[in-house]
Amino acid sequence: MRPLSLALIGCGAIAAKHVTSIAACPGAKLAAVCDVSAERMEQMSLLWRSASSEKHEIIRFTDYKQLLADPSIDAVVVATISGLHAQIAIEALMADKHVVIEKPIALSLREADEMIRLADERKLKVQVCHQLRYRPLMMKINELVKGGALGSILNASVKLRIHRPLSYYQSSGWRGTWQHDGGMLLNQGIHAIDLLLWYLGSPKRVYGELFSHYPFKETEDAAVGILTFPSGAKAMIEANSITLPNNLEQSLFVLGDKGVISIGGPKLDQIDRWYIEDQPFAEEEARKILLDHSEHVEMYRTLIEACQGNPAAEAALIGLSEGRRTLETIFALYLSAVTAEPKSLPIHEFCTLQMKP
Ligand SMILES: NC(=O)c1ccc[n+]([C@@H]2O[C@H](COP(=O)([O-])OP(=O)(O)OC[C@H]3O[C@@H](n4cnc5c(N)ncnc54)[C@H](O)[C@@H]3O)[C@@H](O)[C@H]2O)c1
């Protein structure tokens, strides 16, 4: 079978993770890169040559539209600044390319809905980069929660206490803007919130408050939220990107009436509690997979197999509807913060530009 021919659009900080993960997958090759910076394209081409056994020349494009017109490309990875994700993905789907799309998938629900419509209509595969879902520990928690091992879920929480210094915002002008980034919930908090929703489903109501500390950026530096689920379960969100002097912790807590899982540490790889009433060796099993962080490669392996027609892999893709649900929940929190009232879901319209004063 011919390897899947992938092109990377956006060669910034996260690009190296995509290049090395593609290089680790036998069924795929990086065929092209695109960025407005020639230097960054050069860096990613060099990285591909050192990380993979393939020594073919990588085609370079400064205009993604020209890349999308190349019939030799099967799939594109959208890893540009967040404000361009949806526009590029929509055009890629219209050009009949499969898409790997960085989070957040869009900065408006209208664009998210358009992507979903196009992907369905054209039967194209989309993989949303909520890659933590492919980390073995997170998959195990999903299996336990969905399989009922924790009993009825009563309460959950996610916490993010990290530090993003001034230099982080100065390094790229798009960061911290409502037009191109969204706030810290959309950029950093989104992974933990996505896990929470993967485990608990869609909330029916969201209450939130936001807090801004840095005067040089538009978006929030901290947020708190309360999510209510149809079952009555409640979840808390506590997130900030101004913890001093550096990253402190992330945590995920799920409490059921038959067990509790609490993980933390700077990289969500520390077990604080792993108790399941009728599974005395559950924690021992979890510790065996605790440090397996192969999620990016697994994310690509799943996409490649789905594109090769494997139905199990297709079912394991993180689809656009999942990405939309996480967006919708964060947007509901934003709307709640603006109106100082709880927001009921679903919501159909929201764009981060509404947050601009
Ligand atoms: N999944 C994750 O864990 C994860 C981690 C980090 C970043 N991200 C996401 O990846 C995206 C990129 O983040 P980053 O940290 O690499 O940002 P970055 O600023 O380092 O890189 C963005 C790149 O996009 C390029 N770009 C801008 N406009 C372009 C255009 N029109 N055509 C082609 N390229 C263009 C820029 O030149 C730059 O090289 C963001 O959306 C971010 O949210 C995801």
UniProtKB/TrEMBL annotation:
GO molecular function, one term: nucleotide binding
Pfam families hit by this protein: GFO_IDH_MocA, GFO_IDH_MocA_C3
Domain named Gfo/Idh/MocA-like oxidoreductase N-terminal: residues: 6-129
Positions of the GFO/IDH/MocA-like oxidoreductase domain: 139-261
Domain of life: Bacteria
Name of the featured protein: Gfo/Idh/MocA family oxidoreductase
Organism: Cohnella pontilimi
